[in-house]
Amino acid sequence: MSEEKKQEAEAACTAPEKAEEPKAEKSEKKKSKKDAQIEELQAQYDKTNDLLLRTAAEFDNYKKRTEREKNGVAEYAKAGVIKQLLPILDNVERAAAADKESPEYLKGVEMIVKQFEALAEKLGITEIAAVGDSFDPNLHEAVMHIEDENLGDNAIAEVLQKGYKIGDTVIRHAMVKVAN
Asked: Which of 175, 136, 128 is nearest to 155 (CA)?
């Protein structure tokens, strides 16, 4: 082989090596760029995950706090109603201890009923059902049925137990006798 051919062969052998170096550098640049992207995505993930965990903890604390507040408000409301019922209970106890044959006894019981009616009105409690009203299964509970020509269809003939509601909420359905 001549000297020129040897040089060409060496050049051919070294040329691909030189060409491969830039490819290796590009490959490393791609890897370092990918590593940077992965690190950036990991940082975003960690930040989002931390935010999610904090939000979940805050929501859990909010639920617990509102439940405590709700229970406190309910307890306060009950205490207010009971406080208003205590004078009536005191009068019932006095009536129970009084002489049942005394004319004052009946007068005292009537006063207790008036006290309770005044308290119910103050609290917004209204009575459900009166004789002659139309039967409504949402408000009344029919326990008896009679035939009466003087009353219309599904009319209340008698109220056996009074029912009460506050606003649109039924506290107790009225037990009634329904005609026709």
From this structure: 136
